[in-house]
Design brief:
The complex is a heterodimer of chains A (134) and B (389).
Chain A: E1 2-10, H1 19-27, E2 30-39, E3 42-51, H2 53-66, E4 69-72, E5 77-79, E6 99-102, E7 107-110, H3 120-124, E8 130-132
Antiparallel strand pairs in A: 1-3, 1-4, 2-3, 5-8, 6-7
Chain B: H1 6-15, E1 20-22, H2 23-33, H3 35-41, E2 44-46, E3 49-52, E4 57-61, E5 73-76, E6 79-81, E7 89-93, H4 107-115, E8 120-125, E9 136-141, E10 149-156, E11 163-165, E12 172-174, E13 177-179, E14 185-188, H5 196-199, E15 211-214, E16 217-224, E17 234-235, E18 238-239, E19 246-251, E20 260-265, E21 269-277, E22 279-281, H6 285-291, E23 299-304, E24 316-319, H7 320-324, E25 327-330, E26 333-339, H8 343-358
Parallel strand pairs in B: 1-2, 11-23, 14-26
Antiparallel strand pairs in B: 2-22, 3-21, 4-7, 4-10, 5-6, 5-8, 8-9, 10-19, 12-13, 15-16, 15-21, 16-19, 17-18, 20-21, 23-24, 25-26
Helix pairs in contact in B: 2-3, 3-6
Classes of the chains: A alpha+beta (134), B alpha+beta (389).
The structure holds iron/sulfur cluster (2 copies).
Residues 79, 84-90, 108, 125, 127, 129-130 of chain A line the site of one iron/sulfur cluster.
Chain lengths: 134, 389
Amino acid sequence: MSKRKFNLYFIPELVNEPITYILVKDFDLKFNILRAEVKEKGGQLLIEVDGKPAQITKGVAYLQGMGVKVEELNEFVTKDEERCTNCGMCVSICPADAIEMDRQNWKVIFHLDKCIACGLCVSSCPPKAMKLKA
Amino acid sequence: MLKRTYEEINAKIEKGDAVVMTAEEAIQLVESQGIEKATKEVDVVTTGTFGAMCSSGAFINFGHAEPPIRMSKVWLNDVPAYTGLAAVDAYIGATEEREGDGHEYGGAHVIESLIAGEAVHLRATGRGTDCYPRRDIDTYISLKSVNQAYMYNPRNAYQNYGVATNSSEKALFTYMGKLLPHYGNATYSSAGQLSPLLKDPQMRTIGMGTRIFLGGGIGYVAWEGTQFKTNIPYRNGVPSSSGRTLAVIGDLRGMSTEFIRALDFHGYGLSMAVGIGIPIPILDQDMMTCAARTDEEIFAPVLDYSIQSRNRKPMMEVSYAQLRSGTVELFGKKVKTSSLSSYYKAKVIAERLKKMINEKQFTLTRPAVAMPTDRSQKVLEVCSKEEVL
Ligand code: SF4
Ligand code: SF4
């Protein structure tokens, strides 16, 4: 089993399709909706998918076949280690507990795997060490 | 009872056999050996803090151009610097913002660039006079090219500070960082048991002329800091809300961007993180007792920043041990805490200062003048000419 994160972009015509249902039923994938947005030009869904690697690949192919734009999220934000002062301001801001204070050495650790790409830490970091990946 | 003098300590430093410990190490020693033995053993305790200190800036003398100009307006990387001084002197304030494109870049960034050894764009205009005929100049400066460049920070190293939280419905953007609604988080800004002025709470050894670690180099305490006050509550002999402050001075040359960092508080504005370390001479057992106070014994008031008044009252007091645990309990709710000052850097500074003393690069100074012992902070009322007298 593996876990991967994807940003899905829907055109308005697709917004009513039971896409998530099919991903579960036909491809045996578990997933977690991390963020959802609907705008004039369609919708955006950030999901974390959990399943067999081959099934994930098939599921992604299905989505692309339906006309959904799929973008894998590897690194949404990055932490500039040199710029980070290890203050910890971001720790209480992060809704996903992706940023943690190591109480042994008082350094701040960023867990990319827990990040839900909300971007809140980027504006909250005073020395601007957390950056959006372009 | 044991007594020690500055002269004795400095003589030991010169000989290379002074016993220097960081405040954290001193705490451990007192815990294991007891106060008396620890007092006997330790000569100096080093402290450190690294946090946002808005009241910061630098004086620069640019040198004279040919033909000379009396600068009446100066911009450094498009950030206005204050020039109501002599012809080619200016003061660049840390919180001053760049003209034109908003608030992401300012005086703190200019200072950081200078310390990093980078070139900074200088633009200046003048009226044009008989001795200073030139009316404008457009050039570059660096720490190498200017005459003097020294930090002068009127208010640094606050002795304790409040903890900020927010009871309202909406997020607040403050100099204490982003405060989430409904007590979503609490932010604080002191190195607690490592913080210089908390380790010598009555300032017996820190006064004008005290040599300190400033921004990676050596600096001095210049004066009492602005908003210095002594009429404050105490717990365990330590101020339990913001009290004394320091005005500090030091050469930009010799400083490092490791200990001076430009900050941008989203929705609030710019500031500068400054690293300060102060050695505490262990003159007697009382000094050791204070220097070994722990985070469990040092308290800070919790303030609701949604009350937009200077009169907001503390809701409760919490210890730095609680704050540093990651959560505090406010009205039955577990609230996540964040620090604005870096405890990690505070530790690095205390270690660095210890190393400098051990390597004889730093000796202790007796204050030239002691700090005031009776100061309260005034407020500003809107009043008439007669009422103010
Ligand atoms: S982007 Fe959001 S989830 Fe990711 S680390 Fe920053 S605050 Fe946490
Ligand atoms: S707020 Fe920025 S500087 Fe502070 S710990 Fe987080 S990433 Fe580092």
